[in-house]
Every structure is written in C-alpha cells, then in structure tokens.
Amino acid sequence: MSFFRRAIFTQILRRLAFFFIIPAFLSVPLGAESAPSAENKTASYKQLGFSGVDSPRVVQLREKYQTTQYKWLFGILDNAEPYRIYVRNEIEKRGLPPILEYLPVVESNYIPTAKSKSGATGMWQFMLNSVKPFLHCDDYIDERLDPWKSTQAALSKLKENYDVFGDWLLAITAYNCGAGAMQRAVKKAGSRDFWYLSENGFLSAQAAGYVPKLLAVADAVENAGYYGIPFPSARDETGKTIDMRAGEFDYVTVKKSVSIRALARELRIDEDELIRLNLALVQGCTPPHKEYKIRLPEGMKASAEYALHNLND
Question: What is the residue range of the signal peptide feature (predicted)?
C-alpha cells in the first residue's frame, strides 16, 4: 500500500472514530461548532518548555482553538497527518524543539500548495527571495511546493536563526519577520526577551502574534488529555508516533522531460497521487535536458524504469 493510500486509510478510520466515538465522549451535537467543556481529563499537564504559555494572549488563543475553532484545528491536524509525522521525525532527528511540528499550522494550515497574497508559497511559506541556499526554483521546479524538501529547508533555517539569536522564541519569530528585522528590534530594545519585545511595540503586530499562536496550538494539542478536549495526535495508545513510513519513497532518475500524468498512466496508478508526490514540478513534467529524480510510491522503482522505457519507445 502506497504512502498516501496508507494515509487516507488511516484518516478514514480516525474520522469514523470522530463521528461515532468522539461525539459521545464530547457530549455535544455533531454539528456543533465548538468542543465541550473539559470533563474528561486523562493526563497530567505536559510542559512545553517555553515561557509565556500561561500568558493571557496564549490562553485566549488556546481557548478559541478548543471552542469556536475546534473543528477547524481538528481538521487541519487530521488531514496533515502524513506530513506531520515526517516533520515530527525530522525534528526529533535534529534535536529541535517539538513545538516546531505545529509551525506549519500557523504558516499554511499544513497545505503544501498554500500561497499567500505576498507570494509566500508552500507548507512552510517561503518567499522566493529567501529560498537560497535551501531550495531551488526555476521555470520547471519550485521546491517550496515540495513538503519534504521544504521541511528540511525550514528546519535548517530555524536552526540557523537559533544560532544567531540563541533563543528559540526569537528564532521562530525571525522565521516570520526576517532575521534582519529581528536584529533591529533586539538592538533597539536592548533586550533579547521575546515577550518584552512583543509587549512594548518593538515587533510588528504580525510578528508579535506569531509565537502566541504557535504556543496556543501546541498547548491545546500536546495537552489534549489534560484539557479533556481531544485532537489527532498521530500517536498510538502508548504515545509512540504511528508508523506510516512517512517520507519513505522510491526515486527514478530521468534526463529529459517526462510527463508525470503519462508516467502515472503507464504505471497504472492514480495520477493525482503521483502529482502529489512531485508537487515541485510546476509544469507537470520534469525539466528538459536536465537530470531529475521523480519521487515514486515506495516499491515502484523497477516498475517506473520499465514504464519509462515504454514511454521512450
């Protein structure tokens, strides 16, 4: 079973649980816009490791995500599960703060093809002028749209920010407003405390609100058991990340233009699935006269090589 088919199957099971089990637990109608009051606490509080989680701004946002925006956040986390698991695994490999898993919620609702009015693109919302040296973009390729490569790029950028500022809240905010703007704010304020900067007008409204949103989402989800308001966790009953082999693929190298739809038809797999695996190919084909690795469902390399031979005949 391919990566996305496994993901879809898992999501179906979880949505069945949401519609048939969770409503009874929540004691609210299925059509309700908000979650219930917390009456079923099942865990002790989990510290996130950052200051300000109990600040009025964060608490207000967290309560909103648990009530009026509950269904919205639940849906984002549920649909994002295949990407969330990959992001989580990469964060753990690099030893980065676990709350970074929720940054794409704030950035793009975990949508790989998201585009802002300002031109920020992809799950991690890179601007075109900020992709180097992390990602490649040209007339045929926009790696900002690749959820796996852009995750690697974003985590590298965040670590780079941390190396500059020595503080994760500043590093995360700099991801939003830019390292230059953050350096100017720190210099002007004479402080490296995020909460001082945000509460005293040294940051733009957008930058000042960025970390509180992230902390609120992380607190609501990571402490779902404590608050008694469930969210998709992508973990099993023991707390371990569910094994969907996130980010495990096969690849086939081509040296000329190949249509992704034509390859999918030759492979007799769903065209949309192969497109989702190769979102960076903005023209729907690999670049001509250039080597490129097409991402494939795991276990399909030999079949793809045979299919490409047929397409070349």
Answer: 1-26
How far apart CA 246 and CA 260 sit, in angstroms, is 21
Q: Which one, of 116, 120, 153, 117, lies nearest residue 136 by Cα?
A: 153
Q: How far apart are CA 2 and CA 217, in angstroms?
A: 30
Do 202 and 110 share a structural domain? yes
Of 195, 227, 259, which closes a domain? Answer: 227
Round the average pLDDT of the chain to a whole number and report it.
90
What is the per-residue pLDDT across 161-203, written as a single tens digit (0 to 9) for each? 999 999 999 999 999 999 999 999 999 999 999 999 999 999 9
Half-sphere exposure of 197 (CA within 13 A, CB side): 28
The dihedrals phi and psi of 241, each to the nearest 5 degrees, come to -60, 130
> Of all helices (H) and strands (E), which one includes residue 16?
helix 3-20
Of 139, 140, 142, 147, give the one whose Cα is nearest residue 127.
Answer: 142
The whole-angstrom separation of Cα 122 and Cα 108 is 7
Task: Kindly report the number of other CB atoms within 10 A of residue 59's CB atom.
Answer: 16
In the chain, the number of structural domains is 2
Please give the torsion angle defined by the CA atoms of residues 88, 116, 145 and 212, in that order, rounded to the nearest 10 degrees.
-10
**Phi-psi domain of 178 (left: phi exceeds 0; alpha: psi -120 through 50; beta: other):** left
- Nearest-Å Rg of the Cα atoms of the chain is 21
User: Hey, how many other C-beta atoms are within 10 angstroms of the C-beta on 9?
Assistant: 12
Say yes or no: 24 and 172 in one domain: yes
- Token digits of residue 225: 């058991």
Whether this prediction's pTM lies above 0.90 is answered by: no
Q: Is residue 198 part of a domain?
A: yes
Same domain membership, residue 55 and residue 113: yes
Q: Which amino acid makes up residue 48?
A: L
